[in-house]
Each structure stands twice: as C-alpha cells, then as structure tokens.
Amino acid sequence: MNKPIMAKATAVWLVDNTTLTFKQIADFTGMHELEVQGIADGDVAAGVKGFDPIANNQLEQAEIDKGEADPLYKLTLKHNPAAVGEEKRRGPRYTPLSKRQDRPNAILWLVKFHPELTDGQISKLVGTTKPTIQSIRERTHWNIANMQPIDPVALGLCKQSELDAAVQKAAEKRAKEGETMDDDARRKLLSTEQSLEMDESPRMPTAIEGLETFSLKDDDDKEDDIPDADSFFNLPGDSDDDEDDDR
C-alpha cells in the first residue's frame, strides 16, 4: 500500500494543519502538485472534510516535523501490517456487466481455435465457469444457435499477453507429452510475437500440389521435332492451288 487512504481528504488536512510544501503533500498523497495548490486556493475539494493521517495511523508526527524542516524531504507512509497482501489478493476475474453477454462468444472462439486450452485456462481468461465451457464444447448451450466466435482480446475480456501465455503453456505441455501435431495445430500454438517473427515462406497450395513439374511435352520428345511457326501456314494443297492460279 503506497498511498494513504482518502488521499484528497488527507491532502486537505495537511494543507490546513501543516506547513509542508505542495510538492511534499502531492508526493505523499499521489496527487498532482497543482491539484494540491487548488486545495489551498479553495478551487479543489470544496466541502471535503480533512482526514487526519496521524490519528488514523498513516503518518507519524515525526515525519511531518522532518518535512517542515526540510522542503526536499519526502514523507514516508506508516507501515500497516493489516494492509500487507491486500494488493495481491487474488480472486475470480471480474467482468463488467456490459461485457458479460459476450463471454459465450469468446468461449466459443477459444474452443474453436484453441481446443488445446483446458477448461481451467479458459475460465481464468474470460472469467466463466467450467459447466458453461463444457456446454459450449458439447454444443448443448441454450443459446448455441445464436452464438458467434469472437476473439476475447477484441472484446476486452483478456489481454493478448495473457492469451499468448496460456497458449504457450499448452504448447509446452503437448511437447512434453510427445503428441504429434500437424502444421495447422502447431501454428495455433504460436504466440502473436512468435508468429510475427517467422520468415515468410511461399507454399504450394494443396489443390495444385505436384503440378509444379507438369509439362505438355513428353520427356522423349526432341527439340528438333518441335515445328516452327512457318510450318503452320504450309497447309496441304497450297501448292496445287498456286499452280491453278498460274494457269
């Protein structure tokens, strides 16, 4: 916990009850220096009641004394054992109400394009339950007919780095298990950075594979047997017609 609680109210109290500089108060509360100056001028936080950081166990009087004696001194927030670990508390991913209706579409996208991801990984990415994922995998979801696969990153349900990390973890797991994968499955397991760094190599389309050496000429034909352009105009009977015309 790097900043005091009720920062603006704390700044109001420090402005009214100490001779600390605006910068010292701004650094301690995490506010902008001009905002603190606005509090002193009465333009900001009008009507906000000051919050005593000393009485609320956030700051010691000795720190204030040091700050008033030295304008360059930075106040140190008092250590609160009860606040240790509060910022690292983990829980289920919260999804805003406006985006919860998009979760089934995101799950369908992950199931379709990354079937190697486990239900647990998908649950962490988009914040859903395993029964919901299972129903979409088995296409028994009540709204499956109206669902469309949409990238969860595009929907804002997870970050691209989180998706890449989950895909990379699935790739490492498959590699350890020794499971063979075709080119299409291997490409899906690449992260965005890896796929962008790959060299572009032109590939022959499957539909015309094997036709790159196709030729209309037999291997046994000789170049001498190829007729020239003039021979196409020497049609049979041309000489006889010429003789009749001379007569």
TrEMBL record:
It holds the Pfam family TrcR. It comes from the Bacteria. Residues 169-247 are annotated as: Disordered. InterPro entries: TrcR (IPR010421). Residues 170-187 have a biased composition (Basic and acidic residues). Residues 218-228, 238-247 have a biased composition (Acidic residues). This is Cytoplasmic protein. The lineage of its organism: Bacteria, Pseudomonadati, Pseudomonadota, Alphaproteobacteria, Rhodobacterales.
